[in-house]
Design goal:
- α4 packs antiparallel against α5, α5 packs parallel to α8 and α15 crosses α16.
- About 55% of the residues lie in helices and about 15% in strands.
- About 0% of the residues have low confidence.
- The protein starts with a helix and ends with a strand.
- The longest helix is centred in the first third of the chain and has 55 residues.
- It has an 8-stranded mixed β-barrel.
- It is of the alpha/beta class and about 625 residues long.
- InterPro entries: Cyclic-di-GMP_PDE-like (IPR050706), EAL_dom (IPR001633), EAL_sf (IPR035919), GGDEF_dom (IPR000160), Nucleotide_cyclase (IPR029787), Rev_trsase/Diguanyl_cyclase (IPR043128).
- This is GGDEF domain-containing protein.
- It comes from Leptospira bandrabouensis.
- Pfam families: EAL, GGDEF.
C-alpha cells in the first residue's frame, strides 16, 4: 500500500517534471503548423497549382492556438494542454484522410500523437488512447466498405480498398504496442531513478543537516561551538557593532564530580548548565552564548556595562536547579568568570579567547571573586610563566634544585621527630622562585614525573647525612604529586631505588593529597598497601582542604594525618575553630593515626594546640625550612 502511494506520488511528480517537455512539444508543433500553413501559399510564389486556403487557415489557426498555450505556461492546466494537442492532431489526421486519403500525412500525425500519449499520460490511459486512435483508419475502411465515402480516382485505387485502410490500422496498432512497451520500460526505469534520486537527495540532506550540526554545534549541550560562534561574531562586527563584552565561564570541580558520581553525571551537569545559559540568554538579540567544549562556556554581550555584568554574575546561581543542588553533589557547584571588552582588549576571537584564558588563570588563583576582567599586566605574568617553564625543563634535566628541610617537633619533649623535604629553586634572572609559583607550572606540564624522580633521588642521597644529624629514628617526609604517585610501576621504582642505595624504607613518609584519589580508589588502595608492607609510611596531607577526605580515610589505611593550615590560623581566637580541630584530633586517634599540625606560627596557637591530643607540630614557630646541603 505504501509502495503504491509512493509510486503515485512520484508519478505525479513525473508529470510535473514533464511539463517543461510538453511546452517544448507545443512550441515545436506550433512551428510545424506555421511552416505547413506557409507551404500552402507556395503556389502564389511559384505560380504553379492552386492555393489550398482551407488547409492554410486550419494550419495557421492551430499554430496560433498552440503558441498561445506555450506562452501561458502553467496558467493552462496540464490535462488541457495535452487534450488540445491530441484534438489538434486528430483533427488534422481526419482532415488529411478526408482530403488526401492514404496519401496524406495523417498516419505520421497519428504516430506522433501515439508517442505523445505514452510520454504524457499514465500507462493504462495511454495504451487505451493509443489503441483507440489506431482504429481511426479502420473506421474509414468501414465507411468505404459500406459506400459512405468514395475517394476520387485521382488519389489512387488504394484509397477505395477497405483492406488497405484496415492494414493501415493494424500497422498503427503494432506501432502503438511496440512503442508503448519501449516507452513504458524506459519510463519505468526513469521513475525508479527519480525515486532513487529523491530518496538519495533526502538522505543526503539529512546527512548534511547532521554534519552541519556536528560542525557547528556542541554535541553535549547543543549550543553553538567555537567555529559557529566565530562566524556569528564576525557577522555582528560586520553589521556595525562597535562595543561589546565577552565572558568566559569555567565550572569548578568537574573532575571531582566525575570521580565521585561518574562521567555521565558530569555530562548531565554540563548539559543542564547549557540549558540554564540558554534560558538566561534566549530571545535576547544582544547576547550570544556558545560552548568551547569541556567545562567552558563563552558569552558575547552587547549594549551593557561592566557594572551590570558584575551584578548579573553575582545574582547568577547554578545551584537553584534540582540536579545541581548541593545536597546531591556533596558541595555547591561553583564557577569562575573572566571577561574583556571588544575592541579595546582584543579584535578577533582567537585573541579574545587567548586573553580570556590568561584572565581565567588569574581567576583560578582568586578565592573570593567570581569575575575577573582582563588587564594588560596579566600577559606579562603569562610570559614569565612561559620563561620559567623553559628554565624548569633544563633544571629538571640537570637536577638544579635544592632541598630545604623543615623540622617536625614534639610539643612535649621539643625534640625533632621528623623532617619534611621541600624543593627550592633559584635563577640568575628571577632570583628565588617560590614553590607556589613553579610547582603549578611543573604540575601542568609533562615535567611532573621527572621532577618527582629528581627530588626523590636527591632526598635519598641526603638521608645518610640526615640520620647522622638527627638520629637513626628520624623520618623524612616527601610530597608525592598525584601524577607521579599513579605513574606505572611507581612502587617497583621506589623499592628498587631504596634497595640499590641501602636506605631503610622505615625512614620514609610519602605525603599525598586527596587529588590523587580522583582516579580509581581501588588502584590507590593497592599502591598504599604495598608501600606500607615494605615499611614506607603514608601521610594524608592538607586534610580538610579538599572535598572528601573523610571518604578516603574510610577506604585507605594511613599512618599520619596532616591538618591543613587553614584549620589552625584562628584557633587562638575562635572557639568554633578550636572545637573543630579537637574533633579532628579525636577522629585521628580513633583511627590510629598520628596527627601533625602544620603552619604553627605563634605561641597562642601552640597553647591551644596543647589542649588537644595532637603533639607534633610543624611551622615557623619552631623551624623554618633550611637548605642543609648543596
Amino acid at each position: 500500500m505504501v509502495a503504491d502511494k509512493n509510486k503515485y506520488v512520484y508519478w505525479t511528480k513525473f508529470q510535473k517534471d514533464t511539463s517543461p517537455l510538453l511546452r517544448r512539444f507545443l512550441l515545436a508543433a506550433s512551428g510545424l503548423f506555421a511552416i505547413a500553413s506557409g507551404l500552402h501559399l507556395l503556389p502564389l510564389l511559384t505560380r504553379q497549382g492552386e492555393v489550398d486556403y482551407l488547409f492554410f487557415a486550419v494550419d495557421l489557426s492551430f499554430s496560433v492556438i498552440l503558441f498561445l498555450e506555450y506562452l501561458l505556461k502553467n496558467k493552462v492546466p496540464l490535462i488541457i494542454r495535452v487534450f488540445s494537442l491530441i484534438c489538434t492532431t486528430v483533427f488534422i489526421s481526419v482532415f488529411s484522410y478526408v482530403r488526401s486519403g492514404l496519401l496524406g500525412s495523417a498516419e505520421i500525425s497519428l504516430a506522433f500523437i501515439i508517442v505523445s500519449f505514452y510520454v504524457f499520460l499514465p500507462p493504462i490511459v495511454s495504451l487505451v488512447s493509443s489503441l483507440t486512435i489506431s482504429l481511426l483508419p479502420a473506421l474509414f475502411g468501414g465507411l468505404i466498405y459500406f459506400s459512405f465515402i468514395r475517394f476520387p480516382d485521382s488519389l489512387g485505387i488504394r484509397n477505395n480498398n477497405p483492406r488497405e485502410w484496415i492494414f493501415n490500422s493494424i500497422s498503427l496498432i503494432l506501432f502503438s504496442v511496440l512503442t508503448g512497451f519501449l516507452i513504458q520500460r524506459l519510463r519505468s526505469k526513469l521513475i525508479k531513478n527519480i525515486v532513487y534520486l529523491k530518496e538519495s537527495r533526502s538522505k543526503i540532506l539529512k546527512s548534511q543537516k547532521h554534519i552541519d550540526k556536528l560542525a557547528f554545534y556542541d554535541s553535549l549541550t547543543h549550543l553553538p561551538n567555537r567555529h559557529l560562534f566565530d562566524k556569528l561574531i564576525q557577522n555582528r562586527i560586520s553589521s556595525g557593532v562597535s562595543e561589546s563584552l565577552l565572558l568566559l565561564i569555567n565550572l569548578k570541580g568537574l573532575k571531582v564530580i566525575n570521580a565521585l558520581h561518574g562521567i555521565e553525571f558530569g555530562d548531565q551537569i554540563l548539559t543542564l548548565t547549557g540549558c540554564v545559559l540558554k534560558l538566561y540568554t534566549d530571545e535576547k538579540q544582544d547576547i550570544l552564548v556558545a560552548s568551547l567544549g569541556g567545562d567552558e562556556f563563552i558569552i558575547w554581550i552587547e549594549n551593557s556595562t561592566k557594572l551590570k555584568i558584575e551584578t548579573a554574575i553575582v545574582n547568577f546561581d547554578l545551584n537553584n536547579n534540582e540536579l545541581l543542588t548541593p545536597d546531591r553533589l556533596g558541595h555547591r557547584l561553583q564557577y569562575r568568570v573572566s571577561g574583556l571588552q571588544f575592541p579595546n582588549d582584543a579584535t578577533n576571537l582567537d585573541e579574545m579567547i587567548r586573553k580570556l584564558s590568561i584572565t581565567m588563570n588569574v581567576a583560578r588563583e582568586g578565592h573570593l571573586t567570581k569575575l575577573v576582567w582582563f588587564q594588560a599586566g596579566m600577559e606579562l605574568k603569562i610570559e614569565r610563566e612561559q620563561k620559567l617553564k623553559n628554565y624548569l625543563e633544563k633544571a629538571v634535566n640537570h637536577s638544579n634544585f635544592k632541598i630545604a628541610y623543615q623540622e617536625k617537633v614534639d610539643i612535649t619533649s621539643k625534640e625533632t621527630v621528623g623532617l619534611e623535604a621541600l624543593a627550592r629553586w633559584s635563577l640568575p634572572e628571577f632570583g628565588e622562585v617560590s614553590p607556589e609559583e613553579f610547582i603549578p607550572i611543573i604540575t601542568n606540564s609533562d615535567l611532573i614525573v621527572p621532577f618527582g624522580k629528581c627530588i626523590f633521588e636527591k632526598v635519598i642521597s641526603h638521608i645518610p647525612r640526615l640520620l647522622d644529624l638527627y638520629g637513626k629514628q628520624i623520618k623524612i617526609s616527601i610530597n608525592i604529586s598525584p601524577i607521579f604517585f599513579l605513574y606505572p610501576n611507581f612502587n617497583e621504582y621506589i623499592i628498587h631505588y631504596l634497595m640499590d642505595h641501602k636506605i631503610d624504607p622505615k625512614n620514609l613518609i610519602f605525603e599525598i593529597t586527596e587529588d590523587v584519589f580522583l582516579d580509581e580508589i581501588e588502584t590507590i588502595q593497592k599502591i598504599v598497601f604495598e608501600l606500607r608492607s615494605k615499611g614506607i609510611s603514608v601521610s594524608l596531607d592538607d586534610f580538610g582542604k579538599g572535598y572528601s577526605s573523610l571518604h578516603y580515610m574510610q577506604k585507605i589505611q594511613f599512618d599520619e594525618l596532616k591538618i591543613d593550615k587553614s584549620f589552625l590560623d584562628d584557633i587562638a581566637c575562635s572557639d568554633r575553630n578550636f572545637l573543630l580541630l579537637e574533633s579532628i584530633c579525636h577522629l585521628a586517634d580513633s583511627l590510629g593515626l598520628k596527627t601533625i599540625a602544620e603552619g604553627i606560627e605563634s605561641e597562642e596557637q601552640l597553647l591551644r594546640l596543647k589542649q588537644t591530643t595532637c603533639h607534633v607540630v610543624q611551622g615557623y614557630l619552631y623551624s623554618k625550612p633550611q637548605i642543609l646541603f648543596d
